[in-house]
Amino acid sequence: MQLIDATAAERLYSEMGAAVEVSGGSAANTIAGIASLGGRAGFIGKVNADQLGDIFAHDIRALGVEFITAPARGGRPTGRCLIFVTPDAQRTMQTFLGVAGEVGPDDVDAALIKRAQITYFEGYLWDAAPAKQAYLKAAQIAHEAKRKVALTLSDKFCVDRHRAEFVDLVHGHIDVLFANELEIMALYETATFDEAVSAVRGKCDVAVLTRSEKGAVIVSPHDTVEVKVQPIAKVVDTTGAGDLFAAGFLYGLTRGKPLGECGRIAAVCAAEIISHVGARPEAKLAELIG
Description:
Layout: E1 2-3, H1 6-15, H2 26-36, H3 51-62, E2 78-85, E3 91-98, H4 110-115, E4 118-122, H5 129-144, E5 148-152, H6 156-173, E6 176-180, H7 181-188, H8 193-200, E7 206-210, E8 216-220, E9 223-227, H9 241-254, H10 259-273, H11 285-288
Parallel strand pairs: 1-3, 4-5, 5-6, 6-7
Antiparallel strand pairs: 2-3, 7-8, 8-9
């Protein structure tokens, strides 16, 4: 993932071929997945009062997600991510944060966070200074209300840019951590995945570490749970695989499921999302998890 400005976003879009346009955003995709599973969720994020902002707000509310943040008027437009998917289903993302990069402490809805079992952050927004303050404020509110806080590291390049700050965030404020193999190795600067597992153990309540076709490993202070992948006919687009894995895991966790069952639900959700283009579920996930 590479951050770009508005000019680059317009240029790249003009040079793209026919595209599939769908609401996105890493944390928003996770929240959409939780809603598709039948969970209750709210979303805090910024859009502008423009066409893309109207579409995003409509789509997330149509899922039953609580989204009450007022749209900005003027200033930066709604953010967007231009994703190029190669025939092997791998993706390159060019992201213009737009007004989403202006999420700050004043946007934190304390009442919403106190009502939520878990407040979930995406690592991508750590590039924006106001978001850092918002995350720390939200984490404090959640923990004072005896609630939990979750974070996805989002991208190895995010970790490389903010390693020391991410370590402090994980060790001091995060209860549930999501990362893929490369991200967790980058966070602790280890040569192997097993070393990274040892490094993260006990630093938070649960670390959920995905490994693509190798499945996932769930690490708690005293246990390690292996999660197998769910077979699908063809991998079409890996965009959103981590987002929906997080959705399934968080859904299971908030319903008191054992870690292994949380992982199974997560794998089912990830399998659905990589079977088609786009990072929002096309099937009703509640009907797939059994």
